[in-house]
Amino acid sequence: MQYPIEIYTDGSSRGNPGPGGWGVLIIIKKEKNESKNWKESVKIIELGGKNAHTTNNAMELTATLRALEELKERSIKGNAAIHSDSAYVLAGIEAWVYAWEKNGWKTKEGADVANQELWKKLLAITYKAKLMREREIKWQKVKGHAGNVANERVDEIATKSALGEHVLLFTGSLIDYEKILGYDLQIDAKDIPAQEKLVPVMSKKKSKSTKPAYSYVSVVSGKIHADKTWEECKARVIGKKGTKYKKVFSKTEEGTLVGEYKNL
Questions:
Q1: SS3 217
Q2: Does the predicted TM-score (pTM) go above 0.90?
Q3: Which tens digits make up the pLDDT trace of 122-176?
Q4: Distance CA 80, CA 175 (A)
Q5: Which residues are catalytic?
Q6: CATH number of the domain at 5-191, out of 3.30.420.10, 3.30.360.10, 3.90.79.10, 1.10.10.10?
């Protein structure tokens, strides 16, 4: 599967809690235009912001959420690889968040999950993007402060923002990015799609996920149902015309799918 969108994110706080900042670098690898330098086909979008009193983890989450919101606001579709040096973000979105949601946003010790409003928004936007066939997301660990230019750049944006310093944020082509800011993101021409459009590459095969279902949502004769077991759902839908049904893995997915079915 190809990922024509690459996103680098970082967050910082001075004091933890204290003044904080976040940074995002989005690389959009559009289809080559043979009449132009290939670097003119690559778009760069930088984002950044600050918060007067926050934590490092909250800023890491904010950066990731704002990156995906930016793609949504700009109606940019395509599979995305998100690079983060935050173990908190990566472990949270790939594992912890499902248990938290199932437990009513409580930890296994019974405490309220920290940054839960940010987690809820991140979970909702990632699931909806997949449901609407806008993008698949791959989460990737990047080692911080190890010479990765994109990672170093988002660290710079986040740190300066936390310190209250002005940061010049760029939006434009890769060729101008290199000329104006002088950063070499080490993107190779062979990584730019030659024929594939910037659209999602989604498998039509049935999911073979072994993760237990949260529920089975169906719409039958205009009525929406959420059954906890496949046997209940199966009895409701099999043999009836015009039905739709889908297995979901969390309360958030269930709510999003119910909303989609209401609009049918």
A1: strand
A2: no
A3: 999 998 888 778 899 999 999 887 889 999 999 999 999 999 999 999 999 999 9
A4: 21
A5: 10-11, 60, 85, 145, 155
A6: 3.30.420.10
